[in-house]
Design brief:
The complex is a heterodimer. Chain A is mostly helical. In chain A, 49% of the residues lie in helices and 12% in strands. Chain A is globular, with a radius of gyration of 23 Å. By secondary structure, chain B is mainly α. The longest helix of chain B is centred in the first third of the chain and has 16 residues. Classes of the chains: A mainly alpha, B mainly alpha. The interface between A and B is large, with 78 and 39 residues.
Amino acid sequence: MRSCEVAPTERPKERPDLHDRLWRDPEVFLHRIDHTAALMAAVARAAARLPGLEAGGSAYAATFSRVRDLGPEVLGAVCGDPYAHFWAQTAFDLASAVARGEPNPRRAAAYVRDLGTEDPRAILAEHLLQFGRLAIGAALVAETDLELPRAVRVSLPTAVPALAAALLGNAEVELLGVERGCIRSSAGPLEPAACPVARVPGCELPLQPHGYAAPGIGWSPAAGRSTFEVQERHRDLVERALRLIARHLPDALEPLDRFIRWVAINPVSEMDDTNFVSDSNLLGSFAVLGIDNPWVVASACIHEMHHNRLFCIEELDGFLEGERLGTHDDAEYYSPWREQPRPLRGILHGLYVYVPEARYWQSCAAATDAPEPALALARDRVVRIRLQQEIALHQLERFGRFTARGAELFRQLAEDTRDTIASSRRLVPDDVPATYIETDGTVVRRRSDDGSRPLSSRQVAADHLRSFDRLGQLAGVSVEAVSA
Amino acid sequence: VKKSNPVNVARVEELTRELVQDLDRPTSNEASREGQSAERSRASRPDSFRASGGKHAIM
């Protein structure tokens, strides 16, 4: 088995520090874990003096103190959990709102809807109670007993934070603590059930459908309505995908193993706009469509893991300037990946994640031992991604407003993107037949809407541009897609 | 349980001090009267965002 055949962004850069920050530095993820712990600690210090919370604030502070005292390993295991990140950010934003007498932060929108109140004190009180979930996860990791000062009500099924496990069933119960490895509850002892886990040498990915099931998150992809049995049926597919990553983009395997706590597989029977999705609230997780094609699932895992990485970079360094960025208030830019206009932050994310995805597909396209359908798919992706990258680069260079640090990082990202475009042209200089994937995983030729003629990759990109650049943002711009 | 990434205790303490100061910082209106930026920490914490490939991203 050969290693990565094409590695266009591996050569030394003028600014290796920026290149590492974008692609390799584990600090990007580690800082996020420490920041989550610090958010919890800051809320604990403030909670007792926040108006309207006295008893709940003190109870939270005592419980957090208990978790922190279990040591850096256990606190790291808890704070690396996607729910811990959501919990900590939301607690801090709510505490800020209460301290300053401000309205609810946007992050609490689902709570406002579900609890039927606009009062941030009432929402914070309920949210602090939910820390009991994390404390229970911590006690289970530390193999110690725990008694929560106040019971936490949960709806089953739900994930157990810090463990690749869930409490199964279909009921509302109150969790009271941990005793001898079992969770004490109003319904008696509950034993967490282990998730299916996709395992290959160097990487384990728990397949967790219940990570979205916690108050305040407010949404779920189709996977959240599925079961361990559904996830188990996709385990072999994910393992085949991980073996492809190990061959074609081996650098991606370690961060998948170390920082992605769970992946939820969306069944192909329930396709929607969240087929492939990463949520910045749930850092360290993503959902992908369980389409029976390991080359596609591998590319999706690379793609979504890098959304997670960029979320962490955004938290650490800042990138784009502006209050509205990332909301849909500024969704007014043509994106080569969407039919609707997108916020610049969405285009930035696309530009970023398609650098490693392009490297992956270039390696696949150069692997002459791959089956012909996979090669046809890879060649199409190699060409189409470079056309899309060129457009996204133009959009960001023309419209993006960056922080000082963001401008440095963007220059490096632009350089790495241009390297990837250049290696794509060397590998597949000519236009190639466009493809798409049937829901059964089959690769087929893409044809015109009336079915009369096969389309090429350039034609697909050019058609997209003609159809959806409604504001003419690419008019007169010289990019390869325009010349198709 | 996945591989452990233990927290860096010193960095957590440093970040906690900064965050506690942020919680104590005046509101943006008060800050602008005082010529300060109350939004420093918020600027480093971008709002929620869902990076979604959309239904047809692969198909």
